[in-house]
Each structure stands twice: as structure tokens, then as C-alpha cells.
Specification:
11 strands; rod-shaped; four-stranded antiparallel β-sheet; 221 residues; seven-stranded antiparallel β-sheet; alpha+beta; single chain; 2 helices; binds FE2/S2 (inorganic) cluster
Length: 221
């Protein structure tokens, strides 16, 4: 029987040190360099996948819960709890008329309305007219107490909850407050089907379950 090969632990060659997979002429230094490079590239690849996911996962914890800009909607007497009143406002004041849109506003009804989780109770309900399917403008129909989208038949209930068609979440809302007897509207925010508050999302972005971690906030749209 042949004697087992003798290896020199101090040899600079991988073959001489008996390292598995060694080939002639390969030095330990070169092997370590290749291993280090492979680990570095592997670490970069893992970080590229993990960091965005982590950001989306932790994002909701950092979402702000107050508005930064307020626009006047009119005196409190203009609004009631029974019907939405349309008001024109400016999403992007810097661009003038092209930045204008419509919001439906009514007083919050403490007996009937759902309190949005994750924020202070808002004195008024200000509903966005942007459909959460792909963004067509919805219209409020007082006779049926529903919001209807003309594009693909989306139907929303009195609180903006989805009741039919393809929309993926309730209609977005705006912060509201009362200053010196006048109603003011702040930034937009989104809600999921449980009426939990989220920073604003684009149309077609789901917000229930794990979906809430997959879409980034879009406060400027
Ligand atoms: S955009 Fe409203 S239902 Fe499609």
C-alpha cells in the first residue's frame, strides 16, 4: 500500500499544502484573493436585493402623520355630514390651472364614519377623485351615495371603500383641519381596505397584506 502523500503546511502552493481542488502552480495568495473577491461580489448582490426590501418594510414605520401644506376649502357652514361638496384645489400650485383637481368634502360623522387607523381623527372627510385603478377621475352620485368611475366601472361606497370593479384599494383622502372657522385641506394619504393610513401611493398599488411593502410612497403625485 502506498504511503499517504506528505504535505508541507508552509508551502506557498495550494497543491503542496494539500488543499482540495488545488492545481499545479496555484499559490495560496491567489486562491485567497479569488475567494475574497467571490465573497465581496456575493455580499454586494445580497445587499442589492435585501436593502430595497428592508427599506419598503421599514418605510411604513417612518411615514409621517401630519400635513405640510394647507389649502382653504371654505367656511364650515358650507359642509354637512349628509352629502359631499365638490371643491377645486391645486395639487401643484406652482403650475397654476393645469395643477387643479377636485376633492369631495363633508363633515366627519362620529356615529357612522370609520376612524382611519394611524392618525388623529380628522374633522372632515376629504376624498380624492383619482380612481385607485389607473387614475381616472371619479364622480360622486348623491342619489346612490356612491363614487363611480367612468373608465372601467369602478364603484366606491360612501366612505370611498371599493364596492365593485377593478380598483385595488379605497379612494385616497386628504388631511383636514379647521382654522378660524374655515376648513382647510392638507396632503393626500392612502388607506387600505381596513382603513389603515399609509403615505400616498400611486393608482393600482395594493395596500393589503404583504402588498403594502412592495410599493414605495409617491407623495408628489
Ligand atoms: S380607472 Fe377607474 S375603474 Fe379603471
Amino acid at each position: 500500500m502506498d504511503d499517504p502523500p506528505k504535505f508541507d503546511k508552509k508551502s506557498r502552493y495550494t497543491e503542496g499544502r494539500g488543499i482540495a481542488g488545488a492545481y499545479e502552480g496555484e499559490t495560496v495568495t491567489r486562491r485567497r484573493l479569488m475567494e475574497g473577491a467571490a465573497q465581496l461580489y456575493g455580499g454586494i448582490a445580497v445587499a442589492a436585493i435585501a436593502l430595497p426590501s428592508l427599506g419598503f418594510a421599514l418605510g411604513p414605520l417612518l411615514e409621517k402623520s401630519t400635513a405640510s401644506r394647507w389649502q382653504d376649502l371654505g367656511p364650515e357652514d358650507d359642509f354637512n355630514i349628509e352629502a359631499y361638496v365638490p371643491r377645486t384645489f391645486n395639487i401643484v400650485p406652482e403650475v397654476g390651472d393645469p395643477g387643479k383637481s377636485t376633492v369631495y368634502v363633508r363633515r366627519f360623522d362620529a356615529e357612522r364614519d370609520t376612524v382611519v387607523k394611524g392618525q388623529e381623527r380628522q374633522p372632515y372627510v376629504a376624498i380624492s377623485t383619482r380612481c385607485t385603478h389607473v387614475g381616472c377621475p371619479v364622480r360622486y352620485i348623491q342619489a346612490s351615495l356612491k363614487f363611480v368611475c367612468p373608465c372601467h366601472g369602478g364603484v366606491y361606497g360612501f366612505e370611498g371603500q371599493v364596492e365593485g370593479g377593478p380598483p385595488v384599494r379605497p379612494l385616497d383622502r386628504f388631511y383636514t383641519r379647521v382654522e378660524n372657522g374655515r376648513v382647510e385641506m392638507g396632503d393626500r394619504f392612502s388607506v387600505n381596505s381596513e382603513f389603515e393610513r399609509f403615505s400616498p401611493r400611486d393608482p393600482s398599488n395594493h395596500l393589503d397584506g404583504l402588498w403594502q411593502y412592495l410599493y414605495p410612497s409617491r407623495p408628489t403625485t
